[in-house]
Amino acid sequence: MRLSQQMKLAPRMIQSMEILQMTQQALEERIEQELANNPTLELQEPGSDEKQIASELKQEERDSREGERELYVSDDAEAKNTGDDFERLNNISEEYGDSWAANTTGTGEKIDFQQRAAKGTGERDAKIDAMANTAARGASLYEQLIDQWRMVELPEEEILMGVYLIGFVDGDGYLRTEDSVLLDQAPGDLKDEKLLEGTIYALQRTLEPTGLCARDIRECFLLQIDAKMRNEGVDLAVERLLVNEYLKEIEGNKLPMIAKKTGLEMEDITAAIAKLRQFTPHPGRLLADESPQRITPDAIVDFIEDEDCYVARLASERLPQLQISESYAEMAKDKGVEKKTRDFINNNIRSASWIIDAVHQRSSTLLRVVNVVLNAQREFFDVGEQALKPLPMTVVADQLGIHVATVSRAVNEKYIQTPRGIYPLRMFFSGGTETGDGESVSWSAVQAKLKEIIDGENKMKPLSDDSLVEALKNAGIDIARRTVAKYRKQMNIGTARQRKQFG
């Protein structure tokens, strides 16, 4: 026998932490899933009051956990991936039984909630409509290339070799695998070097967009240049020369060296490089590039001119309003209903109450955090990124009386819409330094100032990193050269040589 202490998370605690950290889109999907799986959870009709049974259940649970509303497991406030925090304990199902497994009966039999009877209102089911309107998955790059290749009239063995090679094309559209590896892994009747070379030639000149199945970026550009010269009859001799022999020099912006070796005028070289920018280095992405993720703001900040202040509100109009079904709540109280059925309904009502309460708590915590940001970063909303101040999460946690990990989860992958645009909420919590005047300035503000200096430099004589350090020091920001180089790389800004423009 031994005495030990263990911390175990109740299922509702885990659920609340997960929902707090979810993005707006993820929360919408979670709610749709809960609506489909829990027969006692339903959408609240517009204009209807909260059902009394839901209020009683929620209030009962709130009263029983006054001291445990702030949810956290880890003290790592800056961790973006807190999946370990939500690791389920192996014995959760044993300890909490049916209260956690609300989608099973007391006998362990799985319940198909999709089969429950629909209401006889004659109205369309919003949940079914939402699932029906979900966009279908787009065809992959492999599927699109195969569809193109099937239309080509070539000998059968070449068609088979083409299907085999398309399987090696990466997301950028390149065929980077070595010929020796391709031949070694090819089926026995396709292990022919001439067949391999001929099929690659056919793939490169058949598949669209031009440049697919190139072995490297040089060949990719050459394929596009040759196709344009062949189809449109334009003269791209200078562009072809630069790509074929001076690609590395172009990447290093060593244009005077190219002019010296080729005898070309600087104007001709810069004009040719401008034309090269019209070609794509990643033709595969034109077919199956992932669509940019749509950003849905979780909070909206408005400026009230009459009161000269900023006001935050949650962008929760899209979230469906949830309530517990009154008919199921009455069945749970009806002694005439079989006990096994009442237990099943009570378990689902309890689960529905948890999800409703967790969504409300998420909204409350998020709005409180955003209001603190408004007060602390007022100058940002008035001036811009250069006015951002350091705002540690510990300071926000102390002001709100919650744990710092709760703040971290509340801002994780959340966005706010402001009069200046949409920004990630986490951006407002960066560290910082002090200016020469003793004022605090965030690292994001330092980056904004650095970009302003680079944008305003003489492009014929761009500033070196040492010169950028001096320019920042003149602006009251004293940071090391390595920090300038790090921020420049983070903003995808090249070195002074790469930024230099030639007249």
What does this structure look like?
- This protein has about 500 residues and is an alpha+beta fold.
- The protein folds into 3 domains: about 10-110 and about 295-430, no CATH class; about 215-280, no CATH class; about 430-503, Homeodomain-like (Arc Repressor Mutant, subunit A, Orthogonal Bundle).
- The chain is about 50% helix and about 5% strand.
- It has 24 helices and 8 strands.
- The strands form 3 sheets. A 4-stranded mixed sheet has the order 3-2-5-6. A two-stranded antiparallel ribbon has the order 1-4.
- Strand 5 and strand 6 (about 420-425) form a beta hairpin.
- The termini are far apart.
- Belongs to the sigma-54 factor family.
- This is RNA polymerase sigma-54 factor.
- Keywords: DNA-binding, DNA-directed RNA polymerase, Nucleotidyltransferase, Sigma factor, Transcription, Transcription regulation, Transferase.
- GO terms for molecular function: DNA binding; DNA-binding transcription activator activity; nucleotidyltransferase activity; sigma factor activity.
What's the short version?
The chain has helices at residues 11-21, 24-37, 52-64, 92-96, 126-132, 141-149, 156-166, 179-185, 193-206, 217-232, 237-245, 247-251, 255-262, 266-276, 285-288, 326-333, 339-376, 378-382, 393-400, 404-411, 443-455, 465-474, 481-490, 496-499, and strands at 41-43, 299-304, 309-314, 322-324, 415-418, 421-424, 432-434, 440-442. The protein is α+β, with helices and mostly antiparallel strands.
